[in-house]
Amino acid sequence: MSVRTRVVLAFAVLALPAIVLVLWGTWSTRRQAALEATREAIVARMEDGGGRARCEADPARFTLGRPRRHRHRRDRGPLIAHGRVDAYDAAFVPAHPDAPPLDPEVRDALESSDLGVVEIEGARRRDGALAVRMPWDEGPCVVLVIETPGVRPALGQRILRRDLAGSAAVLGLALVVALIALGPPLARLRRLAKAVRASDGIAFTVPHGVAGADEIGRVARALDEASQRVRDHVARLEERDRALTAYVDATTHDLAIPLTVIQSRLAELDARVRAGERIEPSALEPLLAEHEYLGQLVSNMAAAARFASGTPHVEKHDVDLRALVERVAARHAPLARAQGVALEHAVPSRAVTIQGDDILIERALSNLVHNAIRHGAARRSGREGHVALTLEARAGGAFRIAVADDGERADVARIERVLRGPIDRGEGNARARGLGLRIVRAVVDAHRWSIDVEPHEEGGIVIAITG
């Protein structure tokens, strides 16, 4: 249903009944005034024109005389024409024997009415009549019943027809004006709808002639803002898609390198075994190292995926840091032995329980211990290196976890820059870009802890997490 149709129906449903009620009230008021003017005109003729004397002298043949128009306040009074007049006394007894008796309803109305005039309708009074009570209570002419065609039509029908015609004209004019006024807003709405359909909801912009300070302008601006949010969301999805594609490419490269190394080492060992050579245990150490790296890489990929959208959902529950540190140390002991590194750990005698995500915490500690073993002193100078993993319980439920190695003097500033960098999964490879350290920083930030990097007194570095 169109807006114009709704307006027309609203006029029909709301305006017409209201106008009818107003007309009815106006007509009733005017009719009351006309009845009052009629009574005053008749009373004036009876008092000032000698009508009372003539009526009391011969009530059976009394008439009002020639037609005269009397004024009532600002309105023209009714035309009192020749007609039959029946006189009644105070007991409502007719003076003429052929005059019909007054109905009880008419008598009650005359006695209770403040105006002193009542309309009478009935089969015996073809044109209707007015019963008018005089301001005196004696004699045969206390009540006059006047039958005349010049009285009752003037009291209602003519006035009602005139008011109905005027109201219909005003209502029609108002409807035309309303429909004309609706033209520009409806045209703006059509342009707005056309622009929305043409934009598919994404490239929408407010068309010319639609913007404004009214409700249509606000709707247009709201659509523009919603379209901008959609465009921003699409842009973020496209950026995430590009980053995911680059991440898959980089991850494929990261996984391919250790797999290639493992494959080549296994092929070499297979050839040596087929040739009857004895394989030393040290020949398996590169395979163990690459296997450990593969495990670290896959775990870091899972952690990085949780941090991909910004702030990850951290599932906090009771975590025993003492048991967690011992698990990390036990898991990395074979790798440390293969690398010629002594991995030691120290934990309090009692459990250290905190609220946190055990999977992310264990991933962060594993990254720190793995980096310390791979970059320890044994790989650089040939001597046995040392890595220490310690847990310290502090007052108030606080703790400190430190991972220290005694390798060559490290560039603390560079390590801090790597820690502060974002998790970029789309450039370089995991070994070069420090993905493990950045995951450590992300885990620390997610738990609202702190991390510090300090040079070790015997060389190497100490990375400590405090919470």
From TrEMBL:
Pfam families: HATPase_c. Keywords: ATP-binding, Kinase, Membrane, Nucleotide-binding, Phosphoprotein, Transferase, Transmembrane, Transmembrane helix, Two-component regulatory system. Gene3D superfamilies: 6.10.340.10, Histidine kinase-like ATPase, C-terminal domain. It comes from the Bacteria. It is found in: Membrane. SUPFAM superfamilies: ATPase domain of HSP90 chaperone/DNA topoisomerase II/histidine kinase, Homodimeric domain of signal transducing histidine kinase. InterPro entries: 2C_sensor_his_kinase (IPR050980), HAMP_dom (IPR003660), HATPase_C_sf (IPR036890), HATPase_dom (IPR003594), His_kinase_dom (IPR005467), HisK_dim/P_sf (IPR036097). Residues 185-235 form the HAMP domain. The chain crosses the membrane at residues 7-27, 164-187. GO terms for molecular function: ATP binding; phosphorelay sensor kinase activity. Its EC number is 2.7.13.3. The keyword rRNA-binding does not apply. Residues 250-467 form the Histidine kinase domain. One of its GO terms (cellular component) is membrane. It catalyses: ATP + protein L-histidine = ADP + protein N-phospho-L-histidine. Its main location: membrane. This is histidine kinase. It comes from Sandaracinus amylolyticus. The lineage of its organism: Bacteria, Pseudomonadati, Myxococcota, Polyangia, Polyangiales.
